[in-house]
Write a structure and sequence with these properties.
By secondary structure, the chain is mainly alpha-helical. It contains nine helices and five strands. The chain is flat, with a radius of gyration of 26 Å. About 2% of the residues have low confidence. It is a multi-pass membrane protein.
């Protein structure tokens, strides 16, 4: 009973999805390979579009990645195609689907990833070293501006999609092989590039700076002319960069403005 992962790797739009799906598929296949219940009742295969375009044509496949189960007898039924859009492609979900189709239960084993532990250890060491060097003067801990800047950095990182990038691992940008044009903004609302996150981060930072300047102009008690200039600069930052942000939103969410 072969279970096949069909990948259309040469399609840039789904390149990072195929890569993530392939990683989950490899985790599942290796879990079965090194399982104590391993037998010849189930085989895992993979088809790359670059090397097996005819397979895509024979199966009338026009999207990727796709997971299919081929029973030992008869043709595949509708349930033999994994519902990727509804369930996702996590190895655990694939294992459950395989158990439903073949009655073969696979216990998913993921290799340990120590990158998070190492990063946390480095961060703790850095903070500890800084506190040790400044042990005689810890007033900076009570600096409101410093904590505010740190909080804003976290907010900018999260609202720009950095966590999504960490989970999905998208490419930095996309270069069209036909005309060489580089795209930094993904055309779909379901995906993004790393460069797009950086752009959104800078736009949010500029808008925030404009709001800070507007607040400074309204609450300060300095020269009226200086406050007017600060107000105009802040207003210009908010209007210009927020308009730019809306234009990106409109290019990704087709149909905006909603009516």
């Amino acid at each position: 009973m072969p279970c096949t992962n069909i990948q259309q790797m040469d399609v840039p739009l789904f390149l990072f999805l195929c890569r993530q799906a392939n990683e989950e598929y490899q985790v599942l296949a290796n879990s079965w390979r090194y399982s104590s219940a391993f037998s010849n009742k189930l085989f895992f295969t993979i088809v790359d579009y670059d090397e097996g375009a005819d397979v895509f044509q024979q199966l009338n496949m026009n999207s990727a990645p796709t997971f299919m189960h081929f029973p030992p007898k008869g043709k595949p039924k509708r349930a033999d195609t994994f519902d990727l859009q509804r369930i996702g492609f996590a190895a655990e979900q694939l294992a459950k689907w395989i158990a439903d189709r073949t009655d073969v239960h696979i216990r998913v084993f993921r290799p340990p990833n120590y990158s998070g532990t190492i990063a946390l250890a480095l961060l703790v060491s850095l903070v500890g070293g800084l506190l040790y060097l400044r042990r005689n003067n810890l007033e900076f801990i009570y600096n409101k501006t410093g904590w505010a800047m740190a909080a804003l950095c976290v907010v900018f990182a999260m609202t720009s999609g950095q966590m999504w990038n960490h989970i999905r691992g998208p490419p930095y940008a996309h270069k069209n092989p036909q005309n060489g044009q580089v795209s930094y903004i993904h055309g779909s609302s379901q995906a993004q590039f790393v460069a797009e996150s950086h752009i959104i981060l800078l736009l949010n930072a500029a808008i925030t700076m404009g709001m800070v300047l507007l607040n400074e102009a309204a609450t300060s008690k300095g020269d009226v002319g200086k406050r007017r200039i600060i107000c105009l600069v802040g207003l210009g930052l908010v209007v210009f960069f927020f308009s730019f942000l809306l234009s990106i939103f409109r290019s990704k969410y087709h149909g905006y403005p909603y009516r």
